[in-house]
Every structure is written in structure tokens, then in C-alpha cells.
Amino acid sequence: MQASELVTYVSGRSGRTWASSVLQDARHHRHWQRVLAQVAGLHLSTLSFPLPTSGTVLGGTMELHGNNISLACFHGINFKSKSWALFSLKEPCISFATEAQEIPSTEANEQLDVHVVQTLTFSLGMMADHPHAQHHSMATVCRLSRNVLFPPQFRTLQEWFHYAFANSEIDAVDRFPSLERERSESCDQQRSRSNNSNKLQDPNHTREVIFALPSLQLHLKTEHLQAAKTPDVVGECKYSVSVF
Question: Which GO cellular component terms, listed alphabetically, does the Swiss-Prot or TrEMBL entry include (predicted)?
Fold first, then answer.
């Protein structure tokens, strides 16, 4: 075997070994080991001393929240369908937090395990200073049907929003965006629509509540203790769920 062939063989073998190691780490969700190794002893401009070689806690949080989420699914090709479904969420919030830290290994000396904690929280109606009463619905799935034969002849998207969500109790229809051409209409047309708002409040619909949820909070927390060596088999992850 020539020298060039030997180099090619060794480099190809090491490449396959590295790829296999990365694949094994991904299968076992070992994402923090390489990151913790990179920050060990790291010098930061904001600190007068380097980070410790072990024990640093890494992590982050992500949170999404809003006032209302509203979705109307029409049984047909457009707004003129005779029936549709409304999916409504009031004050939804979802938060995800994770942290990882190296700790002394319980199986081998001079090696470090990685302890990972992940928390997922989902809530409805818990953002206000005064939480909503339990009998108030914070999420609903409703079926609406038009009782008249012919659909209305609205010309703007805002009017169709009011028409579709007229019987909803938790959707803030007035917060829906308007098209540019609607904002450029004359004041007389705007006053005309406001005078007709009472008609939109009673569009002669039949409303059926299929599903409803009160204010609640769902808390999901997982803890992983990952050994210094990659296990041969995929382990199980235990988690706990609590609803308030």
C-alpha cells in the first residue's frame, strides 16, 4: 500500500468515525457536551476572569404570548359558505426554558456528567393581573351556520371578519388588521359602517359550542442526567405534567 493510499484510508476512516459519533450524540440528545466544552475557560470582555473549566450553567428562554388567536375555517371555497368553524384562544402564552450544567460523574472519577432541565409552560387567561374566573371560557371551538338562504354582500375584509366572528364571546374582532384601501375610504363610508354595526352583531347565525376550556396552566418539566460516555442503547426520559 502506497503512502497516498494510506492517508486516504486513515482520513476516510476517521471521517466515518466522527460522523458516527455525531449521529450517536444526536440519537441520545447529547447536544450540550460540545457546547460546554467550548465555553470551558472562556475569556469574556465583560468579566475580569475566565469562566470555570466546569460547573458553568448554560441555557435560555423563549416566550410567545398574545391577546387573541382566532381562526375561521369555512366549509367551502370562500366566506359565502353556509357553515364554518371558529377556533378561538384568549390570552395564550407558551414559554420554553432550558439549562444544562456539568456535574461530577457518579460512575467514574475525573469525568463529568451533564444535567439538563427543560421546562415547557402553556397557559390560557393567566396574563392579566386578576386571573379570570373558572366559568369564563378562554378557548372555544364552535360551529356556526347561516340561517338565511343567501349570504350577505360585503365588500371589505373587515366586514367579513365581523360577520364570521359576530357570535363569538372571546374574539377581539376590532383588533383585526384592515386593508390599505379600507383605511383610505372616506369618513362618510366609515360612519355608514359604524351605523350598520348593530346589524352585524345579529347576523342570524346558529352557534354550537363543541369544545371549551377555562383559564388554565399546563406545566411540563423534564430532567436528563447524561453520563460522560454515550450509552449503547437509547434510554427513556421521565417527565411530569401538572395542570393548574
Answer: presynapse
Judge whether 29 lies within some domain.
no
Residue 188, phi then psi, degrees to nearest 5: -65, -40
- Give kind and range of the element (H or E) at residue 158: helix 157-164
Domain that holds residue 228: 55-243
CA atoms of 130 and 150, how far apart (whole Å) = 44
For the whole model, what pTM was predicted? Answer: 0.65
Distance, CA of 61 to CA of 41 (rounded, Å) = 24
Q: What is the pLDDT of residue 155?
A: 80
Q: Is 81 within a domain?
A: yes
Q: Which secondary-structure segment (H or E) carries 197?
A: helix 197-201
Element (H, E) at 78: none
Q: What is the mean pLDDT of the chain?
A: 76
CA distance 133 to 217: 14
Q: What is the pLDDT of residue 98?
A: 94
**How many domains is the chain partitioned into structurally?**
1
For residues 100 and 58, the answer to whether their CB atoms sit within 8 Å is yes
Contact 66, 125 (CB under 8 A): no
Task: Enter the DSSP assignment of 28.
Answer: T
- The answer to whether residue 46 is domain-embedded is no
Please work out, in degrees rounded to the nearest 5, the angle formed at the alpha carbon of residue 194 by the alpha carbons of 191 and 196. 115
Q: Is the pLDDT of residue 181 over 60?
A: no
Count of beta carbons in the 10 Å neighbourhood of residue 123? 20
Per-residue pLDDT for 97 more than 80? yes
